[in-house]
Design brief:
7 domains, 15% strand, 26 strands, 969 residues, 7-stranded mixed β-sheet, Lambda Exonuclease, Chain A, 5-stranded mixed β-sheet, elongated, alpha/beta, 35 helices
């Protein structure tokens, strides 16, 4: 297999071009490509003459024999040197010359890969001392003033061929380029590794019986095979026709089975944007572009608006990019037939400042000029020319016009989707009906025409350029006018009929999948009327009434009498201590009897009963201190909050926090079953009191978690008043603590964990990596991500092999966990398997995008994936924290709409107590009814005792003392 420099050059541009050149095919129909080929041939001839003049005739050769021994050569300069190596794999000890897996897998031995290159010139530098060989420096000529990476790689290819012919490394080469024949010295040894990798890919491409996948790219505008490839691409409806789609995005779609633009168009789903993003620009949707192409209609997102408050000046500039030279400024002032066209021409670089001053002078004569251009080329032009030649005064008309310049592309992008493969002015204006006098005009051809004019100074060539530039300005004016009409149509729908092009507002599109209950639509209006007549509400409100059978409305239960609601069912005389709290002397009863009436729920074995209980207490009077006592410490205070007992509050928050029943449903249920007249404001005050009462329990839970040897952590978001906030959860095996934070940054994490040095189990959020402690990443997260990527890349065998090897490795560990538990003694043996997995599967070269990304992820988290093998009792997943997050998510579903920051903190305190009770095997309702603050003390009392199946009815003052609203703990 012979790989030459033209084939290698073609591969750097496009795999299809490389394949076609290897078959000997010749492209046609590209005027620009023919011109570039001519320049590539003529420039070296002209540059070599100047190079030869500096070397005596006796020390230079032209086209030396291929059989000549270069090591014994005496010349200083060789021109047009043909070099070829029959055995690229001769140096088998070279680390970079060994075949990679791709080439080896295709059965292509390196000994059969022949490299050949016709070097433009080679300079021989004599040895500097005895025993030191002479150096050979390859020289390549490039006619462009600016070099690309491909030019350097081509020189490195020449150096590689020369090195293998000589049998020793060629460390550097030279590129002579541009109008001034500037010499650039390139260290080719640094590029040899990349060249060898590219050569392996070329070999794999040429040895494959099937041609490479057709991919259109930026080089197509300069390629001789452009017409052929584009015709095939249009026939195949290939994704690469979409100019804005990257190779990575294209590969991702192909892994999902989407290969054509038509297929892509059916994936677009109109979605309602969140309120927080409505002021931000919508992202670009390739699927919407495909939909516009399929339906041949303009699709509009949002309300694009083109504001031109003044006289429009449509600007288009022509230049030579490799020289940074602007030679033609086109200006079209005004609209319609009254528009005036200016073409400012520069013969040489010295004339550039002249046309710039003329441009500024014309702007000064225009009333309120507004520059309108297409793309960033003109933006760069204005900035460079202002610095290079003349910066106008700050109060001048030109400066104001520069500040108000309108880039039409910025308005089109992600807002207006024309049914064209790209947003190039040529494509958009042509679809709108504009025609150029030239066939397939482009910026590349304009560069060619300029060089031809500089050679011939032909008036026809100049006219060709000025006409092309004027037509660009006219096409820009038509495109801008269309965009203005589109914006006016959104503001004034009555102008819709004036638009010739078909327009679709994306906001009006409906999701084709719809919901469970889809809207019935039919091309026959009669079927829609029949379907409407079958609706439930239509029949009940119209048909039954007209049939004389009016539906019986639901009977409303009469409200209970307030006197009946507060009729006392039981009177309890509260016993108070008769000892004075100050002098400890016995007091005597004195003063009026105090009483408080309380709504309470009594728990039976299998029943609930509402009772109204009146507590009465006789205070004591201390004879020595003359002070009344025996009331403040135990007797409930007066007021509305004291009207509800502890059991009632326990039952209320048991339903809200534990059962996740919305407050809006709990309140009507209590009213219907018990006749309790509650409202959200009263319940909010109850929540505040309960949260204050259990705040110490919440702090104790968090302290125990942080002081332990294992912490699970996770976070999720919630919306408070249209602002995204976050809730963090810290768990151990027995405790759960929720904390609120306004951000997702790591400040709360570091503050909470502090000096924690145990094992931290978390997901792959990068903020956790900053914590200084042993960490275990949740492997089930990794498994899910790998599985999802595997579904997206079903044909990627390289990635599939990595996932399969990892699954076998993890399965063996899980089998031992199921058999022995989380014990280091039985799990540490798998550390050897982990090292083997990294050595044989991860620490090797991979080619596919998915495999490379997977490798990087495994290498980044190498010290955090298998920490559970080194510790006792450390799980391999983050299920404890995830389970706690799910509990909050269920609560968040019905509290998020009207909750405040203060309210969410109160909810989190009660939820922390609830989840800790569950993790410790306690009943949350029993704990609330007990009035205990310390969960661990409550659990200690329950430990060793049989769980009660029937709770006793509350007696004495304890029924309302803790933690009823209004009763301070």
């Amino acid at each position: 297999m012979r790989i030459t420099s033209p084939i290698f050059d073609a591969f750097l541009k496009c795999a299809t071009k490389c394949h076609l050149r290897s078959l000997g095919e010749v492209g046609s129909g590209s005027e620009y490509a023919e011109w570039v080929r001519g320049r590539d041939e003529s420039y070296p001839r002209e540059a070599i003459r100047g190079l030869q003049e500096a070397v005596p005739e006796t020390e230079r050769v032209v086209a030396p024999s291929a059989t000549e021994n270069l090591k014994a050569a005496k010349w200083r300069l060789a021109v047009d040197l043909a070099a070829q190596t029959p055995n690229r794999g001769a140096d088998s000890n070279h680390p970079e010359s060994k075949p990679n897996e791709e080439t080896h897998g295709l059965g292509i031995p390196h000994s059969e890969q022949v490299l050949g290159s016709r070097l433009h010139a080679v300079e021989r530098v004599p040895s500097e001392g005895r025993g030191k060989p002479a150096q050979f420096v390859p020289i390549r000529f490039v006619f462009r003033n600016k070099l690309t990476k491909d030019d350097r790689l081509l020189l490195a290819f020449d150096a590689l061929v020369l090195s293998e012919v000589l049998g020793r490394e060629t460390t550097f080469g030279k590129i002579i380029h541009g109008d001034d024949r500037t010499t650039l010295k390139v260290k080719t040894s640094a590029l040899s590794g990349e060249v060898r990798k590219r050569l392996d890919k070329v070999a794999a491409l040429l040895s494959s019986p099937a041609p490479p996948d057709l991919v259109l790219n930026r080089h197509c505008a300069e390629c001789e095979f452009q017409a052929r490839c584009r015709k095939i691409g249009v026939e195949k409806d290939d994704l690469s026709l979409l100019a804005t789609m990257s190779a990575k995005e294209r590969q991702k779609l192909r892994s999902k089975g989407i290969f054509t633009i038509t297929q892509l168009s059916y994936t677009f789903r109109p979605r309602r944007r969140p309120k927080r993003l409505r002021d931000k620009r919508e992202k670009y949707h390739h699927s919407l572009k495909a939909l516009a192409i399929r339906e041949k209609k303009i699709h509009i997102v949002g309300s694009p608006e083109l504001k031109i408050e003044g006289t429009p000046v449509y600007l288009d500039v022509e230049g030579l990019p490799d020289r940074d030279f602007y030679y033609l400024i086109g200006m079209r002032i005004g609209n319609g037939e009254s528009a005036i066209q200016h073409s400012l021409w520069a013969d040489t670089v010295a004339d550039e400042g002249k046309i710039w001053r003329a441009f500024l002078g014309i702007l000064e004569t225009v009333e309120k000029p507004v520059l309108v251009h297409y793309g960033s080329y003109e933006t760069t032009f204005l900035a460079r020319m202002s610095e290079r030649h003349h910066n106008p005064p700050q109060d001048s008309t030109a400066v104001k016009a520069f500040a108000m310049a309108v880039n039409v592309v910025s308005i089109i992008f992600a807002q207006i989707y024309f049914p064209t493969y790209s947003n190039r002015l040529k494509d958009v204006a042509e679809w709108l009906g504009f025609k150029w006098s030239e066939l397939e005009p482009s910026g590349a051809k304009a560069v060619m025409w300029r060089y031809l004019w500089e050679t011939t100074r032909s008036p026809a060539a100049r006219l060709r350029l000025t006409t092309y530039n004027a037509e660009d300005c006219e096409a820009l004016a038509r495109t801008a006018h269309t965009i203005w009409n589109l914006g006016s149509q959104q503001a004034q729908p009555e102008l819709k009929d004036e638009m010739e092009a078909p327009v679709v507002q994306v906001d009006t599109l409906k999701n084709p999948l719809g919901g469970k209950w889809r809207v019935f639509s039919s091309p026959l209006k009669e079927l829609e009327l029949i379907n409407k007549a079958a609706h439930w509400d239509y029949q009940r409100e119209r048909i039954y009434v007209r049939s004389g059978k009016r539906p019986t409305p639901a009977r409303q239960r009469p409200c209970a009498n307030s006197k009946a609601l507060w009729r006392v069912d039981k009177v309890i005389e509260a016993e108070a201590s008769n000892k004075c709290p100050d002098c400890h002397q016995k007091g005597k009863r004195g003063g009026a009897i105090r009483s408080v009436t309380v709504q309470e729920i009594l728990f039976g074995r299998f029943s609930l009963k509402r009772r109204v209980i009146r507590y009465e207490c006789q205070p004591y009077l201390c004879i020595r201190c003359k002070k009344t006592f025996g009331l403040d410490e135990k007797f409930p205070k007066r007021g509305r909050p004291a009207k509800y007992g502890r059991n009632l509050l326990a039952y209320l928050f048991y339903q809200i926090i534990d059962l996740r029943i919305p407050m809006g449903k709990v309140i009507p249920a209590l009213s219907r079953l018990f006749g309790l007249n509650l409202n959200p404001g009263i319940v909010a005050s109850f929540k505040e009191t309960m949260a204050a009462y259990y705040s110490q329990a919440h702090e104790a839970i968090l302290r125990r978690i942080v002081s332990g040897s294992l912490v699970h952590v996770d976070e999720t978001d919630l919306t408070i008043k249209r602002r995204r906030d976050y809730v963090w959860v810290f768990t151990s095996m027995d405790e759960v603590a929720y904390l609120y934070s306004e951000t997702r940054e790591g400040e709360l994490l570091h503050t909470t964990l502090g000096q924690f040095r145990g094992v931290l189990v978390s997901d792959f959020y990068t903020i956790y990596d900053s914590q200084d402690c042993p960490q275990q990443k949740c492997l089930i997260h990794l498994v899910r991500d790998l599985n999802e990527e595997l579904l997206h890349n079903p044909y990627d065998e390289e990635f599939k092999q990595i996932v399969k090897s990892f699954s076998l490795l993890l399965k063996g560990m899980i089998d031992d966990v199921d058999r022995y538990g989380l014990k280091r003694h039985f799990l540490k043996k798998h550390l050897v398997s982990v090292e083997r997995f990294y050595r044989k599967v991860i620490d090797v070269d991979h080619q596919s995008t998915a495999a490379v990304a997977c490798k990087q992820r495994f290498q980044k988290n190498r010290d955090k994936l298998f920490t559970f093998l080194k510790f006792d009792g450390v799980p391999w997943n983050n299920n404890n924290a995830e389970h706690a997050i799910k509990a909050f998510a269920r609560l968040r579903d019905f509290i998020e709409s009207g909750v405040t920051e203060k309210g969410i903190r109160e909810y989190l305190i009660l939820l922390s107590v609830c989840q800790t009770c569950k993790y410790m095997g306690l009943d949350f309702l029993d704990f609330l009814r007990s009035g205990e603050k310390d969960i661990y003390a409550f659990a200690e009392r329950r430990r060793g005792r049989r769980r009660r199946t029937q709770t006793s009815q509350p007696t004495g003052l304890a029924a309302v003392a803790i933690p009823g609203p209004g009763n301070q703990p």
